[in-house]
Design goal:
The complex is a heterotrimer of chains A (343), B (329) and C (344).
Chain A (H helix, E strand, L loop, with lengths): L7 E14 L5 E16 L4 E5 L6 H8 L7 E6 L2 E2 L5 H8 L2 E4 L13 H11 L9 H11 L16 H13 L5 E5 L7 H18 L2 E6 L2 H7 L2 E6 L2 E7 H6 L4 H9 L41 H5 L35
Parallel strand pairs in A: 3-8, 3-9, 6-7, 7-8
Antiparallel strand pairs in A: 1-2, 1-4, 4-5, 9-10
Helix pairs in contact in A: 3-4, 3-5, 4-5, 5-6
Chain B lengths: L3 H12 L31 H9 L3 H18 L42 H37 L1 H16 L2 H10 L6 H28 L2 H9 L3 H37 L11 H8 L8 H28 L5
Helix pairs in contact in B: 2-11, 3-4, 3-11, 4-5, 4-7, 4-9, 5-7, 6-7, 7-9, 9-10, 9-11, 10-11
Chain C lengths: L2 H5 L8 E12 L2 E13 L4 E5 L6 H9 L7 E10 L2 E2 L5 H7 L4 E4 L3 H4 L6 H13 L3 H14 L5 H4 L9 H13 L5 E5 L7 H18 L2 E6 L2 H7 L2 E6 L2 E7 H6 L4 H9 L38 H5 L5 E4 L5 E7 L4 H6 L1
Parallel strand pairs in C: 3-8, 3-9, 6-7, 7-8
Antiparallel strand pairs in C: 1-2, 1-4, 4-5, 9-10, 10-12, 11-12
Helix pairs in contact in C: 5-6, 8-9
Classes of the chains: A alpha/beta (343), B mainly alpha (329), C alpha/beta (344).
Membrane topology (chain B): Multi-pass membrane protein
Main location (chain B): membrane
Family (chain B): Belongs to the binding-protein-dependent transport system permease family.
Chain lengths: 343, 329, 344
């Protein structure tokens, strides 16, 4: 993988939301450090999963990647070009290549537009993609690609079920033939029996169109299923990143281990034998994160060093030569392997 | 109350209302051929047509709509309803005569006033002033208040701060008192003077409602989706924000319309609304109050018509609100 | 009429039994049949998981038991809810009130909207004792602190006067649990108690709930869509689909060999944490509209095994037996082809 050029390269991405006071004359009294120095790469045709609990900054990462928010600092390079500070025509051109699928299929489609207008809107904004006469035909093709009856083109979103709506959202994301699709919790609002349909559809589309996905979710099982590589986020920082096997079978960061061990497994045979790490307390506020390692307030391994020194996301030295899955970046001073998934 | 199943239920009911079959996806994830045997897909139903579907089944809507329709016709072609003009005076028709209640829709039906003019004819001809003022104030307020609210809500920042403070300032002026102050400065007051005075003070409510719903819609996922497609500000405002923000604003405007008619009547009653010789319910009620002991009907009949008109607009607004907001169902 | 009546353990009679319950909702598109003949029982110290997707009727059943169903548009069209053998639907409102809250308590998914935002949590907890037990203000507060300690809210003494929004999601859910526990009920109904919580907090809350249930020997009805949570805590499971129970089974049995194609499909469609796996099996189609439930077996349009009989006859909830006809115990399936599903 290293010999290829990444299609998307995120480096030292930071997003702070200022906290202000006052009505007409605002003054800043602090900042929510939603994303704080996050770096990763995405390669052509792969899926990078990003997992984390609410408030860890994963949705802000999605918005930054989509240029819906401006980063405080850091860069997002698409094929070598920093896109995070583009605007106007240049930004519009880049948007064709990076599209998004949203979490809630009930709020991400304009309720007063027909399905045809929703999926056709990308062509109206980017008329060069499809000539006017072709658009209806294109929309019908897209409906067919995502497994919906093209006859439904004049229907309104509320006439569809959640799963069907998510297919409409995917069709809209595909319209401009993008190379990258950012998926922000694309199945978490769907029923269990419908989730698998949408996951399978996304995998099929990835193969068909050679898409690269950034797949953001809190469901660790789904992320493992769909991702080639996985990054674990905690309080605005990446705690650990690696291939799916490195993260799930050889986790070395205590947070990843706790997270994985807490996932209830659909297997009653393992419920008594499984080792579970129950973390105490809640995630601290991102407006006032702990010094040093952000996880230290809930970590059972924390020592003085953790409060003073921010651990860097790098392959721990003692694992650097290992030929197992432990040799992957982990932001912990005391990284050690612990398999919590398999019994 | 937990909203879990209740909302899920309504979603399920709603969602599967028309296309009852999803496309079959086989085990390997390939879509199976379309199931043609499924039920014939229902016709497209927009939210507006859904609301209309609900409205025409609501008695309160039907009644108020019919009344309002009659009032509109009255305002446009008053001569259809009465054979005498409102200014035709015949002093042999004394105002102490009892109304001839059995002579339906005849000039003498509801009696005469002190000048010997038919009360019935004056009520019919007075409709125009009320309706024209009510409707034009509403239209002006919608355009102006809507624009201010939309700009403030969508662009936010300093523009919002400035526009919202201006709105607050106007909101602080008592509506009727403000209108009186404005109107007193005019020598003659026509329908248009009164309209402008009311609109000048009345736009704030609409601006606030509009601002609120635009702020909510601005943050919605479908606006995010449009932005991530590269849609420009105007496209987002006209295609996404306005159609969705319109519903609550229209409802507020409909309910406010009744209020504007009241305001006109009150101003005319106080003698600072329409100046003579304009015919308006409020003016007639004002003139009738001196005879209230001997001839209460002079005051009674125009008041009843005024109340019916206001009530109809309120009922219409209420019914439309229920139809547009499924959560209240 | 006496309180003693409800206290007594009646041998051979389940703690709580729902029998052939039917509930409908009035909607624009006609009657939505949310619950169509649901029966289940729960005993002291037992955890029954009711598993189903949105619209399966799992929450409506629970709301009917608690008497918090919105009526209208809801309407109970048949069935019984027996608490220690007495039908609650036939009781006077006063008798019912005494059982609900005192004997049966509920935990909701969204703690923030279930707690009153303008009253302190201590007041709301204490209210249970003041209203139901006639405790004094001071006494009630002391009991509230005790309860908050019991659900392991740190620094309960200092936090008793805080308001709901000052607590995190996990802590609020603990307060909900404390509230449900306050009067030491016999049955707790938990409707998706951890769905809104993060994974690590979810584990804390679920652990606490299981522990308290064990300590107080309560009957627990856990309503959820999460197959993982069910596997972790349930003793027995009722799977619901389109307002009916399609399968009953002890927890180990259900996961090992499901006897209904819907259950089987669900289990195969969830990705695993411990290995990557190949393509997911996907149940085709989507849950039916409750105003137009398919004829015959409600699952037939989505079922890979469906035959003609499934399109005409509603399958009864039949006892599931071993291949040789021997009993399994506690298992039933509403499928014409349960034999083929479990043994084939």
């Amino acid at each position: 993988m290293a010999d290829r050029e990444p299609i998307l390269e995120v480096s030292h991405l930071v997003k702070h939301f200022p906290l202000t006071q006052g009505i007409l004359f605002k003054r800043q009294i602090g900042a929510v450090k939603a994303v704080d120095d996050v770096s990763f790469e995405l390669y052509q045709g792969e899926t990078l999963g990003i997992v984390g609990e609410s408030g860890c900054g994963k949705s802000t990462v999605a918005k930054l990647l989509m240029n819906l928010e401006q980063p405080t600092s850091g860069s997002i390079r698409y094929k070598g070009e920093d896109i995070s500070r583009l605007s106007g025509r240049a930004l519009k051109a880049v948007r064709r290549n990076i599209q998004m699928v949203f979490q809630d299929p009930y709020t991400s489609l304009n309720p007063r537009m027909t399905v045809g207008d929703i999926i056709g809107e990308p062509f109206e904004i980017h008329p060069e993609v499809a000539p006017k006469g072709d658009r209806r035909k294109k929309v019908r093709e897209l409906l067919d690609v995502v497994g919906l009856n093209p006859e439904y083109i004049n229907r309104y979103p509320h006439q569809f079920s959640g799963g069907q709506r998510q297919r409409i959202g995917i069709a809209r994301g595909l319209a401009l033939n993008p190379e990258i699709i950012i998926c922000d919790e694309p199945v978490s609002a769907l029923d269990v029996s419908v989730q698998a349909q949408v996951i399978n559809l996304m995998e099929r589309l990835q193969n068909e169109f050679d898409l690269s996905y950034v797949f953001i979710a809190h469901d660790l099982s789904i992320v493992r299923h769909i991702s080639d590589r996985v990054g674990v986020m905690y309080l605005g920082k990446l705690a650990e990143i690696g291939t799916d096997s490195q993260i799930y079978d050889h986790p070395t960061h205590p947070y990843t281990q706790a997270l994985l061990s807490a996932v209830p497994q659909p297997d009653p045979e393992v419920r008594d034998s499984r080792e579970r790490i129950i973390l105490s307390g809640d995630v601290p506020s991102p407006a006032n994160p702990p010094s040093g390692c952000r996880f230290r307030t809930r970590c059972w391994k924390a020592e003085d060093r953790c409060a003073e020194e921010v651990p860097l996301l790098a392959v721990p030295e003692r694992f650097a030569k290992a030929d197992t899955g432990v040799a992957h970046p982990s932001a912990c001073h005391f990284a050690e392997e612990r398999d919590v998934v398999h019994v | 109350m937990p909203e879990t199943e209740a909302t899920n239920l309504s979603k399920a009911v709603q969602a599967t209302g028309a296309p009852a079959t999803d496309v079959a996806v086989t085990e390997d994830g390939q879509p199976a051929p379309m199931a043609e045997s499924g039920p014939v897909p229902g016709r497209p139903r927009s939210l507006w047509s859904d609301a209309w579907h609900d409205l025409v089944r609501k008695p309160s809507f039907l009644i108020s709509a019919v009344v309002i329709l009659v009032l509109l016709v009255m305002a446009a072609w008053p001569s259809l309803f009465t054979s005498v003009g409102p200014r035709t005076a015949d002093l042999s028709n004394h105002y102490l005569q009892k109304p001839q209640l059995t002579h339906f829709f005849q000039p003498e039906w509801l009696g005469y006033n002190q000048q010997g003019q038919s009360i019935y004819a004056r009520m019919i001809y007075g409709t125009r002033a009320s309706i024209v003022i009510g409707v034009s104030v509403t239209v002006l307020v919608l355009v102006f208040g809507g624009l201010i609210g939309m700009l403030a809500g969508y662009f936010g920042g300093w523009l919002d701060a400035v526009l919202s403070r201006i709105t607050d300032t106007f909101m602080g002026i008592p509506f009727l008192l403000g209108a009186m102050v404005v109107l007193v400065s005019f020598e003659t007051r026509t329908v248009w003077t009164v309209t402008l005075a009311l609109a000048f003070l009345g736009w704030t409510t609409i601006a606030r409602v509009m601002r609120g719903s635009v702020i909510a819609i601005k943050q919605s996922d479908y606006v995010m989706a449009a932005r991530s497609l590269g849609a420009g500000t105007w496209r987002i405002l006209l295609r996404h924000v306005l159609p969705n923000a319109a519903a609550p604003v229209i409802v507020v405007a409909m309910i406010a319309l009744g209020g504007y008619i009241t305001a006109e009547a009150v101003l005319s009653f106080l003698g600072i609304g329409l100046s003579d010789p304009a015919i308006s319910w409020g003016g007639d009620i004002n003139r009738a109050q001196k005879q209230i002991r001997v001839a209460p009907h002079l005051l009674l009949y125009p008041s009843i018509l005024l109340s019916i008109t206001i009530l109809s607009f309120l009922m219409l607004g209420d019914a439309v609100r229920d139809a547009l907001d499924p959560k209240l169902r | 009429m006496s309180i003693e009546m409800t206290k007594a353990e009646v041998p051979g009679v389940p703690l709580l039994e729902v029998r052939d319950l039917h509930v409908e909702f009035h909607t624009r598109d006609g009657a939505a049949k949310a619950v169509n003949g649901v029966s289940y029982t729960v005993d002291a110290g037992e955890t029954l998981a009711v598993l189903g997707e949105s619209g399966s009727g799992k929450s409506v059943t629970a709301q009917t038991i608690m008497g918090i169903l919105d009526m209208p548009p809801g309407r109970i069209t048949g069935g019984e809810i027996l608490f220690r053998g007495e039908d609650m639907l036939k009781m006077s409102e006063e008798q019912r009130q005494r059982i609900r809250g005192d004997k049966i308590a509920m935990i909701f998914q969204d703690a923030l909207s279930a707690l009153n935002p303008v009253l302190s949590v201590g007041f709301q907890l204490g209210e249970m004792f003041r209203v139901h037990r006639g405790a004094s203000r001071r006494e009630a507060k002391a009991r509230a602190i005790e309860l908050m300690d019991r659900v392991r809210i740190p620094a309960a003494k200092e936090r008793v006067n805080d308001y709901p929004h000052q607590f995190s999601g996990g802590m609020r859910q603990r307060i909900m649990i404390a509230m449900a526990l306050a009067l030491e009920p016999d049955v707790i109904i938990a409707d998706e108690p951890t769905t809104a919580l993060d994974v690590t907090v979810q584990a804390q809350v679920m652990d606490l709930l299981a522990e308290l249930q064990r300590d107080f020997q309560m009957g627990l009805i856990l309503i959820t869509h999460d197959l993982g949570v069910v596997a972790d805590v349930a003793d027995k499971i009722a799977v619901m689909y389109a307002g009916r129970i399609v399968e009953n089974a002890p927890v180990h049995e259900l996961y090992k060999r499901p006897a209904h194609p819907y259950t089987k499909g669900l289990l195969e469609s969830i990705p695993r944490l411990d290995h990557k796996g190949k393509d997911l099996y996907a149940i085709q189609g989507m849950p039916p509209s409750l105003t137009a439930i398919p004829k015959g077996c409600a699952f037939n349009p989505r079922c890979p095994m469906a035959q003609d009989v499934c399109r005409t006859d509603i399958p009864p909830l039949a006892e599931v037996l071993e291949n040789d006809g021997g009993p399994i115990g506690g298992r039933s399936s509403a499928c014409h082809f349960w034999k083929e599903t479990i043994h084939g």
